[in-house]
Amino acid sequence: MPRAEDPRITLHHKETPRLTHPTLDKLHALQLLGMDHALREQMPRPEITEVPFEERLGLLGDRESTAREARRLKTRLHQAKLRQTACIEDIDYPHPRGLDKSLLRSLSTGQWVRDRHNVLITGPTGIGKPWLACALGHQACREDWTVLSRRLPRLLQEFPLAQGDGRYVTLMTALAKTAVRILDDWGLAPLRDDNRRAFLELLEDRHDCRATIVTSQLPVEHWHGAIGEPTLADAILDRLVHNAYKIALKGDSMRKRPATLAKAPSA
Fold it and tell me: What is the DSSP letter of 127?
């Protein structure tokens, strides 16, 4: 009478799914989702058995690393609250607005963030200031930096509210820690004295420690007068303009282009 095969040492091809599923479950439980997906893709391919174990493991590890970086980037972009979907590769250089391509290439490396410098983007309305700031913020997220974008007028309104309910220290600490701060719409309205002092405190916390992007319709040379109080203006601009890259945009609004194209006769 033939002896039954010991199932502990005999592996029949029909039993393969039963033996591999626990591995997939463990990978999923350990949040190794990249390895999980990569192993599922490998399993139906018979030729994968010819690949050495170390190489297969390396492929799974590479997939896990890529998946984790993608998840981290997604989280950073969500937390950044960028106002527009923009990236460095999509910058419209042909539109005549005075863009310095060499400067933008330099900024795209992220060295300005590592050097803890600022970027000041000025120009008329509709010229693409927030979009460019978001593109630099998106690139910083890709370089593994934390980013947060806020409209400066709303942020200044939040300071007295935070002082009233006890959140002021927590708010200022959070603003100081973020690697890249984007402050949109600087100089739209006159600053009150409490606005000036809160803004100075924010810049003081970040000076030579973190990078800041500021967008404004006002040219930089008009900022001192817009702040209003000469002593505080000197202190604010010393921390904001010192070691800052300046992008002064000019030309017609880019929002006019769709209307112009719509009116153009068809070929």
Answer: S
Q: To 5 degrees, how large is the angle CA 4–CA 5–CA 7?
A: 125
pLDDT tens digits for 185-214? Answer: 998 888 889 889 999 999 999 999 999 999
- Can you read off the two tokens belonging to residue 94? 């042909």
Residues 6+ away with beta carbon under 8 Å from 248 = 98, 122, 123, 219, 220
User: Nearest-CA neighbor of 159 among 114, 206, 193?
Assistant: 193
Q: What is the pLDDT of residue 1?
A: 45
d(CA 216, CA 84): 17
Domains of the chain: which residue ranges? 14-79, 81-254
CB half-sphere exposure, 236, CA atoms < 13 A: 25
Tokens of 121: 């983007």
Rg of the chain taking only CA atoms, in angstroms: 27
For domain 81-254, the CATH architecture is: 3-Layer(aba) Sandwich (3.40)
- Secondary structure class of 84 (helix, strand, coil): coil
- HSE, side-chain direction, 13 A CA sphere, residue 206: 32
The answer to pTM > 0.85 is no
